[in-house]
């Protein structure tokens, strides 16, 4: 029982924390909704016509006193009820309208409220109009017309009592509507509810995969690296043989070194020999991750081969420039058994060899599903210590699954800004059906401030350069 009692507050606290997190993520949209609702209430309040109320009291007495106090009370209360109904009649309202000479627009019956004061002989008349003077005139006119009506009934022996004005209506000083403070307070509550509702609705409609800085796993997979924004441009410069020492490039380099180190921990303490880098959809940074991971391994004097296994829309070789040929490549090795040393190209300023896609086949899935892929993988592992495959997106075809199935491990790349939940979950499910060893998730395009990396050197610092080993293709 004690455990159950403690679980409820913790559950409520978790719900509150989640709700606060949603509102914070959608804070600008929630703020816009809050301001819009509150501003709308303020505008409506400012444009509402003012309404004033004035009250008059009428004393009702029977013509002839009863035999006892009880009978007197019964007769008085019956008269009060009767006169209240007469005051609420349309004929009396029409006479009041004529007496006001058209100064009151609308039906006076809707602007007067008649109440019998409990335990008394009083009738309370409350009139309402859009100006203080008209409110007083309306209420007092009602009492005057009603008095005249009672006298007419008395002359015709149809009335059993008298009605006199006990307290005439006075000129009101303050309007009863609108009430700005009350309306704005209610509007603030409604605006807060609207802000929370809009935030929850936006969160539900947003199909992006939410990956916060506090998360250590996503979709049941560990996060093994976070890649800062701005790494794509640095990678293109590296492909062309250039280098950069700015903060973004250093942050990207540190994150990929961390990724390389985490592969060892994710693979039960032994670094995988072959790794497939995959993504759920296009433009998630998969090729950038594959190249940078290979370069990080090259910095450790690890013989590394980067394979452009995207045989549909390859991008690595095209970014590298015109110096790289496209007549032979990965597809050539699978079809014609071309020698690996003839097809691989060393990247400028790096110990990494790049194997371009080569001529694009008409049916990439059939080619990758052939025994030639496993044969190539075995040959590549004999010549290199690490083989990194850059694959097409999992949503395009079965190509990535076929490559992932023959490798030692798979790295799944998610874009922190654009990856959607459903395709991401489908990608994980597809890899598991292929019985691939998913090592973890790389979260790409994370804000640099949240990445929190330490750098080996500051801009302008001199770093000792070590000679780069020759790649197997150069030997």
Task: Give an account of the 3D structure.
With 475 residues, this protein is of the alpha/beta class. It has three domains: 17-48 and 178-200; 52-167, Alpha-Beta Plaits, CATH 3.30.70.1130; 217-451, 3-Layer(aba) Sandwich (Rossmann fold). Helices cover 48% and strands 17% of the residues. It contains 17 helices and 13 strands. Strands 5-6-13-12-7-11-8-10-9 form a nine-stranded mixed beta sheet, sandwiched between helices. A four-stranded antiparallel beta sheet has the order 2-3-1-4. Strand 2 (112-116) and strand 3 form a beta hairpin. Helix 1 (2-25) crosses helix 6, helix 2 runs antiparallel to helix 6 and helix 8 (247-266) crosses helix 9 (286-299). The radius of gyration is 42 Å and the shape is rod-shaped. The two termini are 73 Å apart. Residues 453-475 have low confidence and may be disordered.
Outline the fold blueprint.
Elements: H1 2-25, H2 27-47, E1 52-62, H3 69-87, H4 90-99, E2 112-116, E3 122-129, H5 132-155, E4 161-167, H6 180-205, E5 217-218, E6 221-228, H7 231-239, H8 247-266, E7 274-279, H9 286-299, E8 304-308, H10 316-320, H11 330-336, H12 340-343, E9 345-346, E10 352-355, H13 364-368, H14 371-383, E11 386-390, H15 399-406, E12 409-415, H16 421-433, E13 438-446, H17 448-451
Parallel strand pairs: 6-13, 7-11, 7-12, 8-10, 8-11, 12-13
Antiparallel strand pairs: 1-3, 1-4, 2-3, 5-6, 9-10
Helix pairs in contact: 1-6, 2-6, 4-5, 8-9
